[in-house]
Design brief:
The complex is a heterodimer.
Chain A: E1 5-16, E2 22-28, E3 31-33, E4 37-42, H1 48-55, E5 63-68, E6 71-72, H2 78-88, E7 89-92, H3 104-115, H4 120-133, H5 149-161, E8 167-171, H6 179-196, E9 199-203, H7 207-211, E10 215-220, E11 223-226
Parallel strand pairs in A: 4-9, 4-10, 7-8, 8-9
Antiparallel strand pairs in A: 1-2, 1-3, 1-5, 5-6, 10-11
Helix pairs in contact in A: 3-4, 3-5, 4-5
Chain B: H1 3-14, H2 16-54, E1 58-61, H3 100-108, E2 113-128, E3 131-140, H4 142-149, E4 155-158, H5 162-165, E5 169-173, H6 174-180, E6 187-191, E7 197-206, H7 211-214, E8 217-221, H8 222-229, E9 238-243, H9 249-260, E10 263-266, H10 267-270, H11 272-310, H12 312-320, H13 325-359, E11 362-366, E12 370-373, H14 380-406, H15 410-415
Helix pairs in contact in B: 1-13, 2-11, 2-13, 2-14, 11-13, 11-14, 13-14
The chains are: A alpha/beta, B alpha+beta.
Bound molecules: adenosine-5'-triphosphate and magnesium ion.
Chain lengths: 227, 417
């Protein structure tokens, strides 16, 4: 195990059996260092999303091992993984995925309310702080579905950060944004890395985005061809 | 507030119209439950009260010859043949209870007995002018009879105790008086099967509430009944007994029967057929109520399935940020229970209101029993039962969608775009 690695895979293999047997990931061995900002690129169908779902513990149907801070996640139960996602992992998806009927503030608070380690007032002030970090404080009390795409993505980033996760995953977080907003999100990630030493792993199609990260992992037909 | 409950409430608020419709389904289900069950039970207890009030707790009589063997069967030459005798008539009147007065005396000293009343009944024809009605006279000691059946309370006109002072007094049932066109203090003629005719003066009009009885029954002094039947002054056919505790009727009936060697029938036994009808009636009522609630259950099932279908993304995201399957189940189960709880409370209120309104409308029902107003059983137990039953239906109809929601695979939703 590499020193300082926060996330690591050993001989990760993934098969889909439906409609025909198909190996989507072949013997993946990668690691992400603490405080690293890494991007995963590759052509469409190369297995980027598939890999990200496994790394982020949403998909448990794989062979091989996955370590988060030296803890073997491949042996955990569904409920244990849910707690790990809640406490240690932040998510930013392509399609924002805020709960539309809740306010921005409530959306940001949800993971912390689930964690239940702090009082509601404390969680609320934490959430406001994260929103301020993303320049979203003025939107806090708006319903999530009343925001623009770029604003929604920033709210989603604030939500990903609320429990101070070990690592933030992004699945094409700029895929649905115009170039100005994409640039904005990139800047935010860079600042999180620089100021908070936040570990970030992002799947992207956007070469400009990837070139601005510390390191690029390239996939081709389910294999790592550069890391 | 717990996040799961908060999410549930937010979902419902976002779907106000459908939520209200689902709630109203429960509301009407519960309201009809309470209304219908309260009506049925209220009717039955009114009927039981009226019946119990007019049925002796225990009635002692001589059944000796009721099931007499056919005379044909007693003929020696026919011994070895099968004999069928159709339409064998029982004797018209019951045979006497011998030493009746001693038995009454003895019963009056029994610690469980609070009243004993001798009885001599007879078929008779009532005549007033050209009006003629067939019915029965009950020969009683009015004071003792009143102790058993609270006759004074049901007296519409006159004073029933005049029966003791006015030698030829008679108390008519309200329906019987109407049929004869007779009024208080009128004189009518009573003719017995023996052909004895007495002229009697109406001293009271009485209403028991049992329509059939009120149309055919009259009370007279037991002496006059003996005159009508041309029997001696100790002749009685029944002894009616009132007990301290009517629930001991069955046991005590057995005791008296053994002790006095006459048939003793308790009130439950006497009305066995009615209780049988009530059982069927209750079953039908509860079947109808259950089907209504099942329909409400489908309403909840429907709205929840709809919410879940629309909230697939929410479910996926909640799971991604660490909510467990159980949390998702709790969220949607909470939604259905909120619908059931609020809908149920409103249903209790609506049911109560319906009962109060209908209970205050003058009905003057004259069927099986007669009553001026419908009586509802408004016992809290009914309300509690309806409410709990509603919650159970709600929980069951909410559980299936909730389980389905908890099984959603977040990857499929997140990848699906
Ligand atoms: N549920 C599934 N069942 C069968 N095959 C699948 C399934 N999901 C993905 N695949 C296949 O696995 C391969 C990798 O898919 P994946 O979604 O990881 O690609 P990707 O690199 O994210 O592509 P894109 O850039 O288009 O998002 C593809 O060939 C895809 O068809
Ligand atoms: Mg993809």
């Amino acid at each position: 195990m590499t020193m300082g690695a926060i996330l690591e895979t050993k001989s990760l293999n993934k098969f889909f059996r439906d409609p025909v047997e198909f190996q989507a990931l072949k013997n993946i061995n990668i690691s992400v260092e603490r405080g690293e900002f890494v991007s995963i690129i590759g052509s469409s169908g190369s297995g980027k999303s598939t890999l990200l779902y496994i790394l982020s513990t949403l998909d448990t149907d794989y062979a091989g091992s996955l370590f988060l801070e030296s803890d073997d996640l491949s042996k955990k139960t569904k409920n244990e993984l849910a707690s790990i996602r809640n406490e240690m992992i932040g998510f930013v998806f392509q399609f924002h995925y805020l709960l539309p009927e809740f306010t921005v503030l409530e959306n940001v608070m949800l993971p912390a309310l689930k964690l239940g380690k702090k009082h509601e007032e404390e969680i609320e002030s934490d959430a406001m702080q994260k929103l301020e970090l993303l320049d979203m404080k003025s939107q806090a009390l708006k319903k999530a579905n009343k925001l623009s795409g770029g604003q929604q993505q920033r709210a989603a980033i604030a939500r990903a950060l609320i429990n101070d996760p070990k690592i933030v995953f992004g699945d094409e977080p700029t895929g649905n944004l115009d170039s100005k907003n994409s640039q904005n999100v990139l800047e935010i990630f860079k600042e999180l890395k620089k100021n908070l030493l936040q570990t970030i792993l992002v799947v992207t199609h956007d070469m400009n985005f990837a070139n601005n990260t510390d390191r690029i992992i390239r996939l081709h037909d389910g294999e790592v061809v550069q890391h | 507030m717990r996040p799961n409950i908060r999410i549930a409430l937010t979902h419902l608020k976002a779907k106000k119209r459908q939520t209200i419709v689902a709630m109203l389904g429960v509301t009407f289900g519960i309201a009809i439950f309470i209304f219908q069950a309260g009506l049925m039970s209220g009717f039955q207890s009114t009927f039981i009260n009226q019946t119990v009030n007019t049925t002796a707790n225990i009635r002692l009589y001589n059944e000796a010859e009721k099931d007499r063997p056919s005379i044909a069967g007693q003929v020696d030459s026919l011994r070895n043949n099968l004999i069928a005798v159709r339409n064998q008539k029982p004797k018209e009147e019951l045979p006497r209870i011998k030493n009746g007065l001693q038995i009454i005396e003895s019963l009056e000293h029994h610690p469980e007995v609070v009243g004993v009343s001798p009885f001599l009944g007879s078929q008779s024809i009532f005549k007033m002018g050209i009006a003629t009605v067939a019915g029965r006279v009950s020969g009683v000691n009015i004071e003792k009879e009143n102790l058993l059946f609270d006759l004074a309370k049901n007296t519409r006109q006159g004073d029933i105790f005049d029966l003791q002072t006015i030698p030829n007094g008679i108390i008519l049932g309200e329906g019987l008086a109407d049929l004869l066109g007779a009024h208080l203090h009128d004189n009518i003629n009573v003719i017995s099967p023996k052909g004895v005719e007495l002229e009697m003066k109406i001293v009271g009009i009485h209403r028991s509430g049992l329509t059939e009885a009120d149309k055919s029954r009259a009370y007279i002094n037991i002496r006059n009944a003996q005159k009508l039947l041309q029997v001696d002054g100790a002749y009685i056919t029944d002894i009616n007994i009132k007990l301290r505790d009517i629930n001991k009727a069955e046991i005590l009936a057995k005791e008296f029967s053994l002790k006095y060697k006459y048939t003793a029938q308790d009130w439950k036994n006497a009305n066995a057929n009615i209780f049988g009808i009530f059982k069927i009636q209750n079953m039908i009522t509860y079947l109808i109520i259950a089907s209504i609630l099942i329909v409400s259950g489908f309403g909840i099932f429907n709205i929840l399935m709809m919410i879940i279908y629309e909230k697939m993304q929410d479910i996926a995201i909640l799971k991604a940020i660490g909510y467990r399957d159980r949390d998702i189940r709790v969220i949607f189960l909470t939604e259905s229970l909120i619908i059931g709880f609020v809908g149920g409370l409103l249903g209790l209120l609506l049911g109560f209101t319906m009962q109060t309104i209908v209970g205050n409308i003058r009905m003057d029902v004259k069927g099986f029993v007669s009553m001026e107003y419908l009586k509802f059983n408004q016992s809290p137990a009914f309300y509690a039962f309806a409410f709990i039953f509603g919650l159970i239906v709600t929980a069951i109809s909410g559980y299936i969608p909730a389980r389905k929601a908890s099984q959603v695979d977040p990857i499929e939703i997140i990848r699906g775009k």
